[in-house]
From TrEMBL:
Its cofactor is FAD. Residues 230-344 form the Glucose-methanol-choline oxidoreductase N-terminal domain. Pfam families: GMC_oxred_C, GMC_oxred_N, NAD_binding_8. It comes from Pyrinomonas methylaliphatogenes. This is Choline dehydrogenase-like flavoprotein. GO terms for molecular function: flavin adenine dinucleotide binding; oxidoreductase activity, acting on CH-OH group of donors. Keywords: FAD, Flavoprotein, Oxidoreductase. The lineage of its organism: Bacteria, Pseudomonadati, Acidobacteriota, Blastocatellia, Blastocatellales. InterPro entries: FAD/NAD-bd_sf, GMC_OxRdtase_N, GMC_OxRtase_C, P2Ox-like.
Length: 572
């Protein structure tokens, strides 16, 4: 019996791996999906409808155990007693950094990857992002324009389901939306106040909208599976979603791929490196370690899609060997591992709306907030830094924090604590970090993970542009809250978030038209080895201000179309 050769091997089963598996299998290819972690059983692994009193540590988790096994992962808001099992064990998955430059590398290794606990905010990028370098001179333009990606945004949105409002803003293109979730009273008040302020200062880009989120408010437009249900607003998204209301590859793209009969999913397959064919110089397969048995295996394919997450995909390339024995492949440009980015946080403001009526608390578990897209440095430079930022936030009634501000004591005081809940409002900035060559990753061969694979050394530092931006984020947020009538405003002008804290790490294998300056071409195909594609966040040229996952999937869809054409034409 001959060795099986797949048409495509997809490494990773998260947002991009799931989409690649679906699209390639639906186009008739024989696809192998390798996932480094275990299969997920929702009945066993989801704690969506558990109340705190159902859990030994009331939802917070065993802090001593978390600090010992997950000191990095537990810095993420979702790594608690409900969902810590969706995050890696830091003892088994180490990495290194310079002593004075920390990086928070938040990871999930299981079928579905981080789509089981992501924030679900889904925004399109625009030519303000793709052609940013032409506007301000920093870095490189992307090798694609918005029009190249628009039909693939459409394709992805129709399948995953994104709820939102059309705003007709050039810096935030509208998508194909399901009905939006409702804003709260405080958010509507903010919207009216901020947009009146925008008219007064003559800024047509300043707008408050409901978050665009990959959570169903009705069935998706492409409901071929017919298994996902509209959100019932339980508010427990990061614990897993039994109804499949939020998008995860576990409940959507992977089932779609597997039902074709042409996709095979192998779990607990920790990919170490890509193997090259000595005759052709192209990739012939991948080498992986079985996470359970520690057996070493090799599988073969006509093309490889790296969808393991930006840093893991780059780690695989760095750990592979070229035919002449040199370490690393797809790196004739010398930029593999460089230009690592994340979103900048740490600037914002909060306050209260004292004129909104305080009523008995009613929170409906809406899995969403509000969004203010970038509105600075667009048509002209109006800030003392390059690029810009947007805000995410929300307004609701506090549960008990207001009690310290109430006068009195006794029965009347207790009644007011129970019945009066002031409306808080907060805005937090998401800023664009510039691509710097010196922000990079490399292999550290002195340290290996639990599977014997060299770990990454991650070296990232934010610079003057980011320092100026985070201050402006806070001060401008306060101006917007004040314009909307908020009181008791407190401003955060930093400190800047630790790199990685935004959990939007991207770059390190960027796209480009010039093979001397980039790793991938405009179709995410490696310049050096044409049957390797990288379609996760590693391909990013610049990060913009929008949450990136929707763009990752659209880029993957476009690359899949191209790869299938190339394969059928005999060029792969």
């Amino acid at each position: 019996m001959g060795v099986r050769v797949y048409d495509a091997i997809v490494v990773g089963s998260g947002a991009t791996g799931g989409w690649a598996a679906k699209q390639l299998a639906e186009k008739g290819l024989d696809v192998l999906v390798l996932e480094a972690g275990p299969q997920i059983d929702p009945k066993r692994d989801y704690k969506q409808h558990y109340f705190p009193y159902h859990l030994p540590f009331r939802g917070f988790g065993n802090r001593e155990e978390l600090e010992r096994k997950q000191p990095i992962q537990s810095r993420c808001y979702a790594c608690n007693e409900y969902g810590s099992h969706f995050f890696v064990n830091d003892l088994e998955h180490p990495y290194t950094t310079p002593p004075d430059r920390p990086f928070l590398y938040i990871r999930g290794r299981q079928v579905g990857g981080r789509t089981l606990m992501w924030g679900r905010q889904s925004y399109r990028m625009s030519d303000y992002d793709f052609k940013a370098a032409s506007r301000d001179g920093w870095g490189e333009d992307w090798p694609i324009e918005y029009k190249d990606l628009a039909p693939y945004y459409d394709l992805v949105e129709r399948f995953i389901g994104v709820s939102g409002m059309r705003e007709n803003l050039p810096q935030l293109p509208d998508g194909i939306f399901l009905p939006p979730m409702a804003m709260t009273c405080g958010e509507l008040k903010l919207k009216r106040g901020v947009e009146a302020y925008a008219r007064r200062i003559g800024n047509p880009f300043l707008r408050v909208t409901i978050g665009r989120t990959a959570v169903l408010t009705r069935k998706p437009l492409d409901d071929a599976l017919g298994t996902r249900k509209p959100c019932h607003y339980c508010g427990r998204c990061e614990s897993g979603c039994h109804t499949g209301s939020y998008f995860s590859s576990l409940h959507s793209t992977l089932p779609a791929a597997l039902r074709t009969g042409r996709a095979t999913l192998v779990t607990d397959a920790v990919v170490s490196h890509i193997v090259l064919d000595r005759n052709t110089g192209r990739a012939k397969g991948v080498y992986y370690v079985d996470a359970v048995t520690r057996a070493h295996r090799e599988v073969f394919g006509r093309m490889i899609f790296l969808c393991a997450g930006a840093l893991e995909s780059t780690r695989i390339l760095l750990n592979s060997r070229s035919l002449d024995g040199a370490e690393g492949i797809c790196n004739s440009s010398g930029v593999l591992g460089h230009y690592l980015m994340d979103h900048l946080m740490g600037g914002g403001a909060r306050g209260i709306f004292p004129d909104l009526p305080a009523k008995p608390l009613l929170q409906d578990g809406r899995p969403n907030g509000i969004y203010i897209p970038r509105f600075v440095n667009l048509e002209r430079r109006d800030r003392p830094f390059l690029r810009g930022y947007g805000y995410q936030g929300g307004s609701g009634q506090s549960l008990w924090q207001h009690a310290k501000t109430l006068p009195g004591f006794g029965a009347d005081f207790k009644r007011r604590v129970r019945e009066e809940h002031p409306w808080g409002i907060s805005l937090g900035g998401f800023g664009e970090v510039l691509p710097y060559y010196e922000n990079h990753v490399r292999l550290n061969k002195d340290v290996v993970d639990a599977f014997g694979i060299p770990v990454l050394h991650i070296d990232v530092e934010y610079k003057d542009n980011e320092k100026k931006m985070v201050v402006d984020m806070g001060e401008t947020a306060a101006e917007l809250l004040e314009a909307a009538g908020a009181k008791e405003i407190t401003i955060s002008r930093g400190p800047m978030s630790i790199p990685g804290q935004g959990i939007h790490e991207c770059g390190t294998a960027r796209m480009g038209n010039d093979p001397r300056k980039s790793v991938l071409n405009k179709f995410n195909q490696a310049h050096d080895i044409p049957n390797i594609f990288v379609t996760d966040g590693a391909c990013y040229v610049s990060i913009g201000t929008q949450n990136p996952t929707l763009t990752y999937m659209a880029i993957t869809a476009r690359a899949c179309d191209y790869a299938v054409e190339e394969l059928r034409a005999g060029r792969l």
